[in-house]
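Practice problem: Response regulator
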Amino acid sequence: MTRVLIVDDEPQLLRALRINLVARHYEVALAADGGSALRQAAQFHPDLVVLDLGLPDIDGVEVVHGLRGWTAVPIVVLSGRAGSQDKIDALDAGADDYVTKPFDIEELLARIRAVTRRASPPEAQPARIRVGGHTVDLAAKTVSGDVRLTPTEWRLLELLLRNPGKLIGQRQMLTEVWGASYAKETHYLRQYMAQLRRKLEPDPARPVHLITEPGMGYRFTP
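Answer key — structure tokens:
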């Protein structure tokens, strides 16, 4: 049974999430503030943490930092704040995904399932992956239909394809592909992702595989 620690200071939301997760055969622990969350994580050893960023005692980003000091447990953050900077900070601190309040419970459950799958023991990744009407061969570095990619486009595409469904933050993408000194050069990403969509998406203006999460990063949707 998958163990989930839910951290939020809204009692009604805690109850609703607990009922929905228990009904789907998750084992659930609850915490109403950051201090309790860190103690519960040490005692409960969750397989996943659902963490609200707006906690009464410790900022949620600091809780992410505290957890990452000793565990790689997947973390899905919840945020009701209008801006995206807190979510960016949480992803940079080590969170795995985010959901914006108010949210549909099915959306959160889908994110929980996806993050839990990614945290499972790795299976052999397919060498060939379909993107739109093309087959991308990661081993041979080829794309069907005589599509040619530059080395930089390959590095970006491979980073996304090897993490299906996962939100890859802008800072991580820039650092891994161009280097740490380019961590704020987000216009590089916009330019190269536009090029990849023109080459791979059936309708580049309405991408269905290479998805932008505004202000946050990108994800590959199979």
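Discussion: The chain has a mean pLDDT of 89. Students who identified this feature from the tokens alone can consider the problem solved.
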